[in-house]
Design brief:
seven-stranded mixed sheet; 16 helices; 510 residues; globular; six-stranded mixed sheet; alpha/beta; binds nicotinamide-adenine-dinucleotide
């Protein structure tokens, strides 16, 4: 078991050794053509921790050319799936070997508590490579033989060059969630991480370099969404875009890619309900509701940010909730005891706190939290006390808009009908959590909730083979298991006739 001191010393040592981060294009590290740099900030101190070379528009285009050349060479795209799988398993092993280093730098870069990153995110990232390596060897098609006449069958081929555009929350895990299936299916890619969390993508590129993939198979470019992101989306040589980020950004991306008709997977924002009926196991529901919204500092797409409580349990449940939330340990994210760390950026903290002002202006009440902690050792970081807002009406902005911080809104409901109306009464539809011990009710309600994923009596445990993604303004498409392969491969259908079927002979008669 590591201590805060161990992790802090490790963080300092790793940062001292960290060179300015360069782009990885065509198998080589490069500052890129612009000469521009930006800085990454430690959210716990607001001190700079890394200089990053921005690739700019021209660097993005170079990366796409490199990925295209690599794809066309066939070195990766035509490699035997078993060999591709071996290379991906090597990446998984290298991630596990460097798990402490990756976790410490990710925590230092994002403010997400080390325990949540080390156990949950980094090991899951390694699993992503192992999992999709296995799937690469199992890609199959459909066959439709028609006895004595013809055979129709389909094959799944890699699509080409993918642009993978990722957000700053849990960057390492989300990046591997895209890179692993993309490469497993035989595509080449250009990864563009978010500018507020560039460090772990650098380590991912190092790991992939060590795994010795053909040059240009994986490329990394840094820079803003406006320059690098837009250039990737507009590039005619990019065939598919997998994006995770805000809904408004997703809409912009689709506009940028419209002229060259990209294939998209969109994993967007959420405002997910946690519905608790009076007959539920209330102790487990309470644990799950708290963990679901305050883990990962509340910067979590699948966070259950709207707690809907049946009226008969409302007062008791809220009282217990407040008591627990007051005791959540806010602090240094490198401290293994910390449960909630600082938000990613001072600008994001300001945005989240803006919602607290909006809540009170609209007549809601902040029942606990809502302030920056007044401990001097936390003064320099982007800390916010875990917050619960009550007296909320569903039309209020805090009940409708994604806040993306440690903020929970609570609403009462009378019966199933009202629970469903409130749950579905938002423009998002990523996921939902349903707590009841009545199997009939759970089975009846779950498919009526407008969400891509519904968890029943469960805090977000799932098998990697299940489809992941949202409906309404939370996204388009599903990833995970064979669903990732449906996105990352082109289905081609081949019709072979046995040579005996009649063909109308137009023009044969003189
Ligand atoms: P964001 O939309 O601001 O940025 C995401 C990425 O898009 C970044 O790399 C950014 O540089 C890039 N980008 C920005 N403008 C662009 C443009 N015009 N063209 C191309 N690229 C552009 O999101 P964020 O603030 O980094 O992340 C938080 C958001 O991500 C939240 O809304 C959260 O719900 C969402 N998210 C969704 C899921 C999911 O699976 N549905 C998972 C994690 C996060």
């Amino acid at each position: 078991m590591q201590t805060t001191t161990d992790y802090a010393a490790m963080s300092q040592r790793l940062l001292e050794q960290l060179p300015p981060l360069r782009n990885f294009i065509g198998g080589a590290w490069t500052e890129g053509p612009t000469g521009e740099t930006f800085t990454s900030i430690n959210p716990a101190t607001n001190q700079p921790i890394a200089t990053v070379h921005a690739a700019g528009r021209a660097g993005a285009q170079q990366a796409v050319r490199a990925a295209r050349a690599a794809f066309d060479s066939g070195a990766w795209s035509r490699m035997a799936p078993a060999d591709r799988a071996r290379a991906l398993r090597r990446i998984a092993d290298l991630i596990r070997q460097r798990a402490d280093e990756i976790a410490v730098l990710e925590t230092t870069d994002t403010g997400i508590p080390i325990t949540q990153i080390r156990a949950g995110q980094v090991l899951r990232a390694a699993d992503n490579f192992d999992f999709f390596a296995e799937m690469a060897t199992q890609i199959t098609g459909e066959t439709y033989p028609v006895e004595g006449a013809f055979l129709n069958y389909s094959v799944h081929k890699p699509v080409g060059v993918a642009a993978l555009i990722t957000p700053w929350n849990t960057p390492f895990m989300l990046e591997t969630w895209k890179v692993a299936p993309c490469l497993a299916a035989g595509n080449t890619c250009v990864l563009k991480p978010a500018s507020w969390s560039p460090l772990s993508a650098y380590l991912l590129a190092q790991v992939i370099e060590e795994a010795d993939l053909p040059p240009g198979t994986f490329n990394l470019v840094y820079g803003s969404g406006d320059t690098v992101g837009t250039a990737l989306c507009a590039d005619p040589e990019v065939n598919l875009i997998s994006f995770t980020g805000e809904t408004t950004t997703g809409k912009q991306l689709m506009r940028s890619g419209a002229a060259t008709l990209k294939r998209y997977s969109m994993e967007l924002g959420g405002k997910s309900p946690v519905i608790v009926f009076a007959d539920a196991d209330l102790d487990r529901a309470l644990d799950a509701a708290i963990f679901g919204v305050f883990s990962l500092n509340g910067e979590r797409c699948t966070a259950g940010t709207r707690l809907l409580l049946q009226r008969s349990i409302y007062d008791d449940f809220v009282a217990r909730l407040i008591e627990r939330v007051r005791r959540i340990r806010v602090g240094d994210p490198l401290d293994p005891a910390t449960e909630v760390g600082p938000l990613i950026h001072a600008r994001h903290l300001e945005r989240v706190m803006g919602y607290l002002d909006i809540a009170t202006a609209e007549g809601a009440t902040i029942a606990v939290g809502g302030r920056r902690p007044d401990r001097p050792e936390l003064a320099a970081g982007n800390y916010l006390e875990p917050t619960v807002i009550v007296d909320v009406r569903n039309e209020m902005r805090v009940a409708q808009e994604e806040i993306f911080g440690p903020v929970l809104t609570v609403l009462p409901f009378a019966d199933e009908e009202e629970a469903l109306r409130l749950a579905n009464g938002v423009r998002y539809g990523l996921d939902a959590y349903l707590w009841t011990s009545d199997v009939g009710r759970a089975t009846r309600l779950a498919p009526e909730i407008e969400a891509g994923m519904v968890w029943v009596n469960s805090q977000n445990v799932r098998d990697l083979r299940t489809p992941f993604g949202g409906m309404k303004e939370s996204g388009i498409g599903r990833e995970g298991g064979r669903h990732s392969f449906e996105f990352y491969t082109e289905t081609r259908t081949i019709h072979v006739a046995f040579g005996r079927h009649p063909i109308p002979r137009f023009g044969a008669t003189p």
